[in-house]
Amino acid sequence: MNSQPAAESAAPVTDAVRWTQIVVGIVCMVAAANIQYAWTLFVPEIQATHGWTRASIQTAFTIFVVVQTWLTPIEGYFIDKYGPKVIVAAGGFFTGLSWIIDSYAGTLSMLYVGSAIGGIGVGCVYATCVNNALKWFPEKRGLAVGLTAGGYGAGSALTILPISSMIHSSGYQSAFFWFGLVQGAIIICAALFLRMPQKEQVKASTKVAQTRRDYTLGEAIRTPVFWVMWAMFIGTVTGGLMAVAQLGVIAHDLGVKEAPVSVFGLTMAALPFALMLDRVMNGISRPLFGFISDHIGREATMFVAFTLEGVGIIMLSRFGHDPMMFLILSGMVFLAWGEVYSLFSATSADTFGTKHAGKIYGVLYCAKGVAALLVPLGNLLMEATGTWATVLYVTATMDLTAAACALLVLKPMLARHHARNAELARRAEQGDATRSVPVGAAAGTANG
């Protein structure tokens, strides 16, 4: 007599509970961000200490990104099976361990091992926290994912100066060790508060088309729209990854690395100033464009953001030799780049549902791994042409092509996708209604 229907068994949750999950996810993302976004600070010091070539050191960055992205589908499987708490805690352990290994790395091989372990750790943290945000806020999916991903994009802004200061005062090894230890501990502690919602505890959006069907991974990858998003993801993420990994090198080659820049009474060298601004803009970008996409649609937001990034990269190649323009334009590029991580994850969940979101977005996120393989090619292209302009023009072209695809290709494909799902759902409901009519009643109607 006391049993309840499954739909009523889920206890209602308040907005405070839901937002707490977002805040905890942001804390985890902030603690994991430095492995990617502070890397450029360590490269010159590693090179000066060991005499390794710049390209061989940057291979460690490529390994990190490739492992982080290409293992995401496997991590997605475990997320969907075991929930966020266990996976994020494991990610925190590996994230901290990676920088501790880097602090002792006396060979390139050991540096590469540390980067691979870091890729596993950050992949677990990133994929899980984004997946959790997708599920807790379907009606504000762009904003929720944007805030969560923004923690990863802007998190290193809090620690750029402390890390830089420790590198110069105690050596890069100490910075690796102590920041790795602290960051890993923070993630593990925060992971204890994470959990997934039950489907009855959340409501769908009324402004953005969202499927009511939960696709399996196999079903999703058999749809053309999945591969269009995958190609667009590669096109837009390549330029930003190249900027993340090579911004210090680009600043050096443009002659603005140590040039002083003053803004509102604050004077700093152009490169660290740009790194701080870029992290902030990168963090703002994700919730900003995510919020916009919740209201005007994902595809229109993609068009605006991708166009802005492409134009920013072109202008950086032309005017980046001026310290102030280097600061402004690099900030513009990062503002327009960060949103890829909120828009594509939200679009994926809108298109394929959330039950298997970890696995599906995990495969889509592998596009970042493909883009990471193109980052070292930037160095080769620069050395072949003698200028960064060629590299920047190529990446800008990729951005502008993706912007056009958002409106001309992706938008009509998604419209057809949702229309087809709606029609199938309507037919299924009609079939259920027909089967639920008693035989005698149906006969009486026919004879009446």
Descriptive keywords:
mainly alpha; 19 helices; two-stranded antiparallel ribbon; disordered N terminus; 448 residues
Short description:
Helix 5 (72-82) packs antiparallel against helix 17. This protein is mainly alpha-helical. It has a two-stranded antiparallel sheet with strand order 1-2.
Helix-strand blueprint:
Elements: H1 15-32, H2 34-37, H3 39-50, H4 54-70, H5 72-82, H6 84-104, H7 108-136, H8 141-154, H9 160-170, H10 172-191, H11 217-221, H12 224-254, E1 260-263, E2 266-269, H13 270-296, H14 298-319, H15 323-337, H16 340-352, H17 357-385, H18 388-436, H19 439-447
Helix pairs in contact: 1-7, 1-8, 1-10, 3-4, 4-7, 4-17, 5-6, 5-7, 5-17, 6-7, 6-10, 7-8, 7-17, 8-13, 8-16, 9-10, 12-15, 12-17, 12-18, 13-14, 13-15, 13-16, 14-15, 14-18, 16-17, 17-18
Kindly describe this structure:
With 448 residues, this protein is mainly alpha-helical. It has helices at residues 15-32, 34-37, 39-50, 54-70, 72-82, 84-104, 108-136, 141-154, 160-170, 172-191, 217-221, 224-254, 270-296, 298-319, 323-337, 340-352, 357-385, 388-436, 439-447, and strands at 260-263, 266-269. A two-stranded antiparallel sheet has the order 1-2. Keywords: Membrane, Transmembrane, Transmembrane helix. It comes from Azospirillum endophyticum.
Kindly state the number of beta strands.
Answer: 2
Q: What separation lies between the terminal Cα atoms?
A: 41 Å
Low-confidence stretches: 1-9, 439-448
Helix content: over 70%
What is the helix tally?
A: 19
Rg over CA atoms: 24 Å
What percent strand?
Answer: under 5%
In round numbers, the mean pLDDT is 85
What is the string of helix and strand elements?
HHHHHHHHHHHHEEHHHHHHH
Q: Structural class per helix/strand content? A: mainly alpha
Largest sheet: 2 strands, antiparallel
Strand order of the largest sheet: 1-2
Shape: globular
Protein name: Oxalate/formate MFS antiporter
Keywords: Membrane, Transmembrane, Transmembrane helix
InterPro entries: MFS, MFS_dom, MFS_trans_sf, Oxa/Form_antiport, Proton-linked_MCT
Pfam families: MFS_1
